[in-house]
Amino acid sequence: MNVFGENLQFYRKQKNLTQEQLAEQFEVSRQTVSKWEAGASFPEMEKILQMCDLFSCDMDTLLRKDAAVLETSDSQGYENHMEKRRRKITFGVTFLILGTAVYEILEGFQRPEVLSNLIFMAMAVVAVLVLVVAGMEHDIYRKNHPVIPDFYTSAEKETFEQQFPRWIATGIGIILIGALIGMNGDEFPLRAGMRDEFYQGIFLLLVALGIGVLVYAGMGKEKYQVDIYNKENSPEQKGKNTRVGVWCGCIMMTAAGIFLVLGFVFDLWKICWVVWPVGGLLCGIAALILSGRK
């Protein structure tokens, strides 16, 4: 059975390349490519490594496995995994901010502060757990599937790219509406027994929804960037990812400590939530710095 030849032909056709075009890339004749696919000859190791780079596959798959069957399985698995991750990350981020919004709304209705704190803490714990689980699941998936062929068609990518600006505009629009409510909350009427915190809660509620839309759009864009996914799983990039993970873990643990101290020791629950976006910003800065290092 000519496994390599069939896989080579499969990947070549998937890339919409003729034998002549593939031959040009490897600086060989069309007849040589034809012999490779027919099983009449075999390329040297250097050419095989080049093929793995070109087709975004590993050597074991190219030489010994049924690429067509594996790709169907990997493609569906990747799509399902990334969509689940997309939903979980969006939920976790949105739910975390919603916890603060609910806290402020309850304060606006002058509910017992103990109740507000408990609900906020419960929502924060759920959100963090969802984010942690999503991160762990993604790490496991990447270890088991370090290389995924870019199976998305140009039409699928183009359709998403057309929708992406609408998602971004919608998210920003929701946040701006929330900002208008937050800045002008003092001007809105309040029923008897209510406080201004109610409109601050509405502001945070809309911010949570807007950020949720932005995160959902961003995660969708990440899903289609299969080439970046494969690059991030390279040995060099894995080392950088490990350093980023360590730094971000330390930053967020510090943020959690500050949050708890400000809340329980100084009773600053109304403002201590700020440590979370600050921690996220610092993680982003750390990722940019560490990823840029060689």
Which key phrases capture this entry?
294 residues, mainly alpha, 3 domains, 81% helix, elongated
Overview of this protein structure:
The longest helix is centred in the first third of the chain and has 42 residues. It contains 13 helices and no strands. α1 crosses α3, α6 packs antiparallel against α7 and α11 packs antiparallel against α13. It is elongated, with a radius of gyration of 25 Å. By secondary structure, it is mostly helical.
Number of domains: 3
Given the helix and strand composition, which structural class is it? mainly alpha
Q: Which bin fits the share of residues in helices?
A: over 70%
Q: What does the average pLDDT come to?
A: 83
**Taking Cα atoms only, what radius of gyration do you get, to the nearest Å?**
25 Å
Please count the beta strands (DSSP E, at least 2 residues each).
0
Unreliable stretches, pLDDT < 50, 5 or more residues?
Answer: none
What's the gist of this structure?
This protein is an all-alpha fold and 294 residues long. The chain has 13 helices and no strands.
Mind sketching the topology for me?
Layout: H1 3-14, H2 19-26, H3 30-38, H4 45-55, H5 59-64, H6 67-108, H7 113-144, H8 154-183, H9 197-224, H10 226-232, H11 235-265, H12 269-272, H13 275-292
Helix pairs in contact: 1-3, 2-3, 6-7, 6-9, 8-9, 11-13
